[in-house]
Amino acid sequence: MNQTTLLPAYALPVEFVASLRDLLGERLSTNTAIREHHGRDESIFPAMPPDAVAFARSTDEVQAIVRLCRDHRIPLVPYGAGSSLEGNTLAAKGGLTLNLQQMNGVLAIHDQDQTATVQPGVTRKALNALLRDTGLFFPVDPGADATIGGMCATRASGTNAVRYGTMRENVINLTVVTADGEIIKTARRAKKSAAGYDLTRLFVGSEGTLGVVVEATVKLYPLPESIMAAVCAFSDIESAVQAVVQTIQMGVPIARVEFVNSVAIQALNLYSKTGLPEQPHLFFEFHGSQAGVKEQVELVQDICRDGGGAQFQWASSPEERSKLWEARHNVYFAVLQLRPGSRSVVTDVCVPISRLAECVGETTSDLQQSGMLAPIVGHVGDGNFHVQMLVDGANQAEIDQAEHLNARLVARALAMDGTCTGEHGIGLHKQGFLLDELGSASVNLMRQIKHAMDPHNLMNPGKIFTF
Amino acid sequence: MNQTTLLPAYALPVEFVASLRDLLGERLSTNTAIREHHGRDESIFPAMPPDAVAFARSTDEVQAIVRLCRDHRIPLVPYGAGSSLEGNTLAAKGGLTLNLQQMNGVLAIHDQDQTATVQPGVTRKALNALLRDTGLFFPVDPGADATIGGMCATRASGTNAVRYGTMRENVINLTVVTADGEIIKTARRAKKSAAGYDLTRLFVGSEGTLGVVVEATVKLYPLPESIMAAVCAFSDIESAVQAVVQTIQMGVPIARVEFVNSVAIQALNLYSKTGLPEQPHLFFEFHGSQAGVKEQVELVQDICRDGGGAQFQWASSPEERSKLWEARHNVYFAVLQLRPGSRSVVTDVCVPISRLAECVGETTSDLQQSGMLAPIVGHVGDGNFHVQMLVDGANQAEIDQAEHLNARLVARALAMDGTCTGEHGIGLHKQGFLLDELGSASVNLMRQIKHAMDPHNLMNPGKIFTF
Question: Which fold has domain B3-99?
């Protein structure tokens, strides 16, 4: 198939393009490959490329672009690293994609206040690299090296959320260009405030449908005095998950606790040479003072031993620790190698922790019965886990089967008072599930807010819910 | 002055009253004393009584009341304990006040998940009394024994927020009757979710202007294995505040750290017989394992000693601890006794902690120069502190002077990138300051949301911003 035939038939007005060209010069692209690239994320959706891609370098440029889009009624899709998983950044209605990667300045680090103010294109790894000498770190770590702006948009989370929270808890304020082209600040830099509606939290998780984040102030944390990491094998899933449930219920301030099922372990062994037994595992990390970590470790070791877990295997040096978590973060790519040429249908749910073992257990049975290669990994300390179903992207029956399994998983999570997505967002993929989860009155309320703030439906249109 | 002359001249339509009477019987009141009572909070504002007060007992009743108000275009003010400080619950436009105190059921305690689902009229103390045998507690503790519904409305906070967060972090989901009479759920009971706009956080802090909270699911925490509390006297304010700043910057997971200045100590000595030296003090509480608490205590003692603090005075038994924190929570009433018959103009600001010492220092000088009796206390671990200015309520010049000092304090906090209110909300009192803090574009965005969700301006009208 010729790539250009994939492009939807939206044409941009000549005047609009001319104005953008005046503003951006070479940083406005209508190149097919670039449009294609911006029309994909890590989801199974076919490419939905924009008609053009703008690369902004400043808040003023973003404001000018938003105003041009508003005046010409052109859809605008803010774009970070393109690592979203539910079609969140696809140009479903064509228009302009606004690539923010070049807005990658760290504007301020207030080490005494433990905050950093960054532009949206800074990635989480770049921020942490810059923080290296401050004794501070930024904890939120989705699998990909996502941008802070994108992480705000999807309310991202990751392995550290069990201790440090998600983007919901870690954004102090945002500067946003709203749909009508105003530059607003959602809050000051105080740690807490009771000053009016929580605009910060309204934009966090809004997936670019209400405005473009142009600056974010996020929380930083002191690097712990002591860090220890270990893996522990279990004979069965239930025991592994129950060990997590007990750890959380006892109030252990664990920094990371990740479940990796035996299929995912197999993939890691192949991809990252981890050499682990092909059994369900927990990956742990403990942060604190030396005495505090020792205490946590003893408690969790006891819990695991009582639950039939094997001996802890320690990653004691910083290098071994990095390798361990690098491996964990690479699960997505490692798993893809289990079936070369395959694509992933990825999903995540989150349930109250009292229902976690049951939810993971039933899901495992369901996947096993389906015969599909579909590893489970997850941030189980939060009740959150992911299924990555490997399909032949050209085989619609397989995709349908994966979607069917996904629907059953979501229904199971909702029946347990859980959510259809713990951290990936709704995007294009989970709009029906959002309705199942909250009901039409709640989604209508979201719609009312969208109508009020973006009456022409120009900001990332078609995402989260139909307009 | 005859009390009835204080009532504004809003008349309720006969049909509306008849329908409410059918619904509520004796639980609809137009009694002058009851209206007066509901027209006051702890602020300096003159009473603004509603035309009638409804006492609801169920979500269905709340829905019916909201629909009647909508159909008849009657303002509706949700009301909990009436302990707000910025005029948040005054019936500024008359109409109906909806007292939710009788909706005081604890609907579910999920001890394994560490959540409780409660009706809005449950007070924080009642919830904790009920939790006594579960090994769990609910940490958010504004000074008053506020209702959970009211605490949601003002995004309440308190002495434990430095460790456990505010209502922003501690509400998992809400059930709300919206302005158009729909019953919506803002989220499921999962610990985290990326499913659409964060409606929970939109209602938390909206001061009843967007709907009526009829159920809230909140986070609970395991009672720590070990708790220790102490007070420490300092020779000057700067040293006390700097000790806090250092404690936070070192990442000590302190549970409470309260600043109480010498005037407030004087009041406490008189009211609670605390017998403390009349100097600036810090009140500490440490939570953790026995070893963890010991470690925290040693670290913080060192910090205080290096900063010129006196020996820690320990409140070691649970009774002594209760007495200490009871005294701290009674500061408001204790201070009022310093000038019998006086009223308080209370204000709170919150600044980045790097600016805290400077902000408290300058504020102290300003207050001293004014000659006004105005103790400072605060949740300084969050950068948050309160000033309680004692005035003769009949002396307009004194009230004006207090307002002038308040305006200077807010301007000082804003200049330090802080907020005009850390935890009391905007209410009637701080609307101008909200504009100073966020600018008109941000406040307009709040207004757009209000217009979309409550087009007839019936939900607690006149609060946070002008419609």
Answer: 3.30.43
